[in-house]
Amino acid sequence: MFEAEADGLRELRAAGEIRVPEVFDCGVANGSSFIAMERLALSRPTARVEGRCGEQLAALHRHNRDRHGWVRDNTIGTTPQINASSDDWVAFFRERRLGFQLELARRHGFSGALQELGAELMDGLHDLFDGYVPAASLLHGDLWGGNWGAVDGEPVIFDPAVYYGDRETDLAMTRLFGGFGPGFYAAYEAAWPLADGHERRLPLYQLYHVLNHLNLFGRSYLGQALQLLRSLV
């Protein structure tokens, strides 16, 4: 996990668009795994910093690859995240994101409506992408309010789950648990407007993270997962 996190931080840092903590080393010492990185004195973001974060995230997303995925697998929380590359985003998201999480949920005993609605959604997934072919953008991958802050008046992001995919997934995660003000979204939209239909895909991309929380933390997330699934199918 730490090796993948270190590689992800380096990938984001190499883009040079938004501040990312420098990684010094990771490995094993005295039987325990470790990652050592730059210490950052975080402060509460101001409205100006939120706007800068929106601008810089849009610039980060303009770093593209030909295929969705990444050079290695990593984790989302402690859940494996499979990043085997694909030139078909819908197939990538169906198999390596939704399908993976739904199968994990089945193994954890969540069957019934969750699996039935999940199968229905995956069968009709292409309908949400009519006329929209997303670029493979460099993504933070887990951009909730706890994974960014301000340092010396500038935004900084950390604790990523990096891969290349639809930039709308990062924006959807920012809206799931809060932590980003209106200036962030206005600045992002001014820098790179989202495509038509992004509102319809928002719950789809949030569903991935809610399913992951269901698998990590249990039944308390089942109702939210079912609500998102019903809204999508």
Compose a concise summary of this entry.
The protein has 233 residues and is α+β, with helices and mostly antiparallel strands. It is 46% helix and 15% strand.
**The CATH homology group name:** Aminoglycoside phosphotransferase (APH), C-terminal lobe
> Any idea of the CATH topology?
Aminoglycoside 3'-phosphotransferase, Chain: A, domain 2
Class from secondary-structure proportions: alpha+beta
- Name the strands of the widest sheet in spatial order: 3-6-9
Shape call: globular
Task: Describe, in plain words, how this protein is organized in 3D.
The structure is a single chain. By secondary structure, the chain is α+β, with helices and mostly antiparallel strands. The protein has one domain (41-232): Aminoglycoside 3'-phosphotransferase, Chain: A, domain 2, CATH 3.90.1200. It has eight helices and nine strands. It has a three-stranded antiparallel sheet with strand order 3-6-9, with no helix packed on it. It is globular, with a radius of gyration of 18 Å. The model has no long low-confidence stretch (mean pLDDT 97).
Characteristics of this structure?
single chain; 233 residues; alpha+beta; Aminoglycoside 3'-phosphotransferase, Chain: A, domain 2; 3-stranded antiparallel beta sheet; two-stranded antiparallel sheet; 8 helices; globular
Topology:
Elements: H1 2-15, E1 23-29, E2 32-37, H2 47-61, E3 64-65, E4 74-76, E5 79-81, H3 89-107, H4 113-123, E6 136-139, E7 148-151, E8 154-157, E9 163-165, H5 168-174, H6 182-191, H7 198-217, H8 222-232
Antiparallel strand pairs: 1-2, 3-6, 4-5, 6-9, 7-8
Helix pairs in contact: 2-6, 3-4, 3-7, 4-8, 5-7, 7-8
